[in-house]
Amino acid sequence: MACVGGKRGQWRRTGFGLCIVGSLLFAGTIAVRAVGAPDADFDRAVGWANIGGFVLAAGGLAIAFWGKNRAQADPQRIADTLAAAGLKAEGQALRELLFAGRDPGRRANVTFQAEGLVHSHSESTSGDLESVADFYRGTTGRMVVLGEPGAGKTVLALTLVCRLLEHRQALDDPSRARTPVPVRFDITGWDGGHSLEDWLAQVLVGRFADLSRDSARAVIDANLVLPVLDGLDEMDLPDLEPTRGRAAITQLNKYLSGSQLLPVVLTCRRQEYAQFGEELAGAVELVINPLSPAQIRTYMDQELAARTDQHARAYWESLDEHDEVMGLLATPWALTLLTVYLRDGRPVSPLTPQPGEAPDDCRSRVWEVLLDEYTPARTRSSDDSRYGPDQVQRWSSALAVNLGDDVDILLSDV
After folding, report:
1. Residue 9: which residues within 8 A CB-CB, separation 6 or more?
2. 3 state SS of 142
3. pLDDT digits 0-9 by tens, 348-360
4. How far apart are the first and last CA of the chain?
């Protein structure tokens, strides 16, 4: 966990250290003076040890609590520390999500169309990963990122968070003091029974070491946290009434400062969002487009440009001519699966259309091949040689069975 709170932690450690020194002084003095000392001298030593130990302990506690309250009274300092820790953590998360067998992983530059522009100050109705932060700053601050499974919603959310953090870092002090820190949360952990503010504070305290609940609430109540809530569609089990997701939207529509709706970003699958029957009030809806054949080729050409990837590149060029395969690769997740597969040196024949095979049947079969081979291929490409592909596959299968349908784990984290 990241360390946040900086000087408050130093003051608390100093204070508690003085408390310990006071206690040791008391015990040590008694032990030293007790050896062969007359009763009167012993009692006098105990008295002075009591006084000295009490003064040090009381002073230490005072310093500890002063340091705590000093930081809690300064939410702007807490926000700056959260921003520094967040930029490092989310940058690493983005690199891991983009990893396709070799660093650095590349982003397929997904594009989007904006809907509900009545809620936006921006004249633009479209954009891409490179412009998403600029687009967001032209909105009211409330935005829903929609897309199909694997379309790149989390990558877009992470890119948005990193770009906003970088922009905030470059602001002057007065502007930065007014600019909230984007923090990504897995919304599936929210049961809706607590207020959003209470839940956000709880997550921040668990994520950042040395951050008290009061400090977390202080920075949230100062409107210096921009919640980026990932995975709204995963709050409810498939094929069941989306009660938790619908309740979350209801709560988010009460996320106010006075009568003003506060900024928030949501990610959700498009179909599931339509089934809630309720929308995020005041939000612009950003819909991720499928990747075009030109975008697919650009990504693969860049990702497989190294000399060490010449065999994988040759395999890719042999697949490029099949429209059925290109149709399957319209999402960044599918491109990651294919890249890992090709770099593992697996045969290309299972990915090509079979004689007499219908296009939909071909896409379904190829998708199953890529999914089945992903975990073994990632294991073989790992620097950690302690575990073999068969072991990891068995453990992953057992984990999936035991956790059930109510827990989501990204395959990219395996």
Report:
1. 3, 210
2. strand
3. 899 998 999 998 8
4. 20
